[in-house]
Design a protein that fits this description.
Elements: H1 7-12, H2 18-31, H3 40-52, H4 60-85, H5 100-121, H6 127-137, H7 142-171, H8 180-205, H9 207-225
Helix pairs in contact: 2-3, 2-4, 3-7, 3-8, 4-6, 4-7, 5-6, 5-7
């Protein structure tokens, strides 16, 4: 969600422009680093819900096709940004944040888990923005990247949009359109929570990372007590 923006009202007021603006949001979130704050999951679900309630009148097949295309093109854009420009960040051996060992670790990770990582990243806010860039930096082969990217984009764009559409199409008679946010917000927060859950489980399942987080929190607490 974007602070200060009523997403359902914003999308509802777009009219035919929804065919342009909604895909543009998806492209910006998946392809441009500055788009990490954009509401991909919530926008997909909301646009589907509004269509299910007949608040917006769209050709849903066409809109989903445009959203899917925007996700694929956006991820590909991020990939090529990483491949063409990202590796320059790692040229300085003593860089604090872009150490060459990080690059080697990323290359090893994508060599082993690349396909699964590309698909899962599509469902995780913020991570889906930076994952294509990191994939490009790690020199994962583009054909391998795009194959898994298409799978992830299909499940993400079609799955979440249709979830919103059929949920509100089925139960729309129980919903007051003027109070749609009352119903949308809890569901969207649940979707976001489910999206980040795999990453949380992965971090907490790694003993080394658990200890590092615990030590960091312990140091912060000690500093605040002084």
């Amino acid at each position: 969600m974007i602070p200060g923006v009523n997403l359902s009202q914003f999308l509802g007021d777009l009219g035919p422009l929804v065919y342009l603006i909604a895909p543009l949001i998806i492209f910006s979130e998946t392809g441009l680093m500055i788009g990490f704050f954009l509401p991909g999951d919530s926008m997909l679900f909301t646009v589907g819900a509004l269509a299910g309630l007949d608040i917006i009148h769209v050709n849903l097949v066409l809109l989903i096709a445009l959203l899917f295309l925007a996700a694929v093109v956006g991820n590909s854009t991020g990939y090529f940004i990483g491949k063409q420009a990202g590796r320059r960040l790692f040229k300085k051996k003593n860089s604090r944040f872009f150490k060459q060992e990080y690059l080697l670790t990323a290359e090893g990770f994508y060599e082993k888990h690349g396909g699964k990582a590309v698909i899962l990243a599509q469902f995780m806010p913020i991570i889906r923005t930076f994952n294509p860039i990191i994939t490009g930096i790690s020199k994962m082969h583009y054909l391998r990247f795009i194959a898994f990217n298409i799978i992830g984009a299909v499940i993400w764009t079609i799955g979440i949009t249709l979830l919103g559409f059929f949920s509100f199409k089925a139960f729309g008679q129980l919903i007051d359109p003027e109070k749609i946010d009352m119903y949308l917000l809890p569901i969207i927060f649940l979707i976001v929570f489910i999206s980040i859950l795999p990453a949380v489980i992965r971090v907490l399942g790694d003993k080394t990372k658990r200890v590092a987080i615990k030590n960091k929190l312990f140091r912060k607490r000690n500093k605040s007590d002084k």
